[in-house]
Write a sequence for this structure.
């Protein structure tokens, strides 16, 4: 096989000094495991949190805790203000036309489930089709499969090449008058492929079909512009964006949010209630029943401030350099196969090693201080497609260094010595 060489990006990257300075913002990274410095390379699963985000949560509970949208007292008013401010920050982060198009959820999974349960159940019926791709996370497969089962619709799957790139001709041929939704991942968590979502959205729109983009892996690594993409829905998770767990975002075009029924019912999502009849609040309130994750939402706002001060494009460019460096190095290790060799890739390196199960690789790497993910990455159909049951996966953040990559490669050589 010809060695994979990734092209350089044009965007200004981060300098090694800057990375070391930024790295110091993350207290968890300075620890040792098994007497070795921690090398954290499971950033696609969740990212570590900078001290400012941790402090924001502590400060909130120490000085500001009060529920949102209800109290008439100072604490509640302040919380409501900070909460709403984050909605504006999220809207600005992804360039939504209005903050009212931003719905807070528990994460990407809940955001997709929200669309499936409301849009899906209302607008998808017997004989209709939903298109997804062969490289989706389970979060963007199972909800649609359930809608299909319930409504008598059919799930169509865009095939993927051996490199991990979607077959756009097959996709175009799949779009027809029965297609009611396309749901596609922006960046694959298992392969690292960056999908040409803009092209895919344009083709769907030419047939009048709305598109949901799973942005769980893109928001942490690139500047996203939902208006430029013209996607109808966009979902992501706070915890992969250097923010807390328990909070995520669904962006939806206002025309869809207005047409969709509510997701859950209860407090906060209503306009008026009598025993005879309830009228619902306008979006986003309509989709946010009950007390939200206030501290987490506010701290997500802090994470967004932190990232924007660095610049997501620069972070992405730096991560791409790390990926290129790691890709070059790992191919020198005998027995390694890279799973996912698309031309357009984000900082995710999935691989197998001849003679060693990915779980063994993960366990041995852990003893060397290197934290990676091993398994099917909640993407079992991708594993089936590539004829493996699992892969080992290193995923990079802007706080990782070339030394981290060197530690990864050295640890893989340890596995090789043991098994081969
Ligand atoms: N979509 C993609 C592309 C993902 O990578 C993930 C999580 C999800 C959806 C679900 O996000 P959640 O925050 O709602 O759980 N991916 C991973 C991963 O790669 N390893 O652990 C979680």
């Amino acid at each position: 096989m010809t060695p994979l060489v990734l092209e350089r990006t044009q965007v200004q990257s981060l300098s090694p000094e800057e990375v070391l300075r930024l790295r110091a913002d993350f207290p968890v990274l300075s620890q040792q495991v098994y007497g070795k410095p921690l090398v954290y390379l499971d950033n696609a699963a969740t990212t570590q949190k900078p001290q400012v985000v941790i402090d924001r949560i502590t400060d909130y509970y120490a000085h500001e805790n009060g529920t949102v949208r209800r109290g008439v007292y100072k604490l509640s008013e302040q919380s409501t203000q900070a909460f709403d401010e984050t909605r504006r920050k999220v809207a600005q982060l992804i360039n939504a036309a209005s903050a009212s198009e931003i719905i807070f959820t528990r994460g990407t999974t809940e955001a997709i489930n929200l669309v499936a349960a409301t849009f899906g159940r209302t607008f998808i019926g017997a004989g209709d089709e939903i298109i997804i791709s062969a490289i989706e996370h389970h979060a963007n497969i199972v909800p649609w499969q359930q809608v299909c089962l319930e409504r008598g619709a059919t799930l169509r799957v865009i095939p993927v090449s051996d490199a991990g790139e979607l077959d756009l001709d097959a996709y175009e041929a799949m779009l027809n008058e029965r297609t009611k939704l396309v749901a596609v991942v922006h960046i694959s968590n298992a392969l690292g492929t960056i999908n040409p979502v803009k092209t895919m959205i344009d083709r769907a729109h030419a047939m009048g079909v709305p598109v949901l983009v799973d942005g769980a892996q893109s928001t942490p690594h690139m500047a996203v512009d939902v208006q430029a993409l013209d996607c109808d829905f966009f979902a992501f998770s706070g915890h992969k964006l250097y923010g807390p767990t328990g909070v995520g975002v669904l962006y939806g075009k206002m025309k869809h949010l207005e047409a969709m029924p509510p997701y859950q019912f209860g407090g906060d999502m209503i306009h008026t209630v009598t025993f005879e009849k309830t009228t619902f609040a306008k979006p986003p309130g309509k989709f946010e029943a009950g007390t939200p994750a206030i501290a987490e939402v506010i701290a997500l706002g802090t994470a967004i401030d932190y990232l924007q001060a660095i610049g997501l494009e620069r972070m992405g460019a730096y991560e791409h350099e790390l990926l290129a460096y790691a890709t070059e190095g790992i191919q020198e290790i005998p027995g390694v196969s890279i799973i996912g060799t698309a031309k357009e890739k984000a900082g995710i390196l999935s691989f197998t090693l001849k003679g060693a199960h990915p779980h063994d690789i993960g366990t041995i790497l852990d003893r060397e201080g290197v934290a990676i993910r091993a398994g099917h990455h909640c993407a079992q159909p991708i594993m089936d497609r590539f004829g493996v049951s699992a892969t080992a996966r290193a995923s990079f953040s802007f706080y990782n260094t070339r030394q981290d990559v060197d530690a990864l490669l050295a640890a893989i050589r340890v596995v090789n010595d043991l098994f081969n």
About this structure: Residues 44-45, 107-109, 137, 139-140, 185, 189, 214, 216-217, 237, 373, 377-378 surround 7TS (CB under 6 Å).
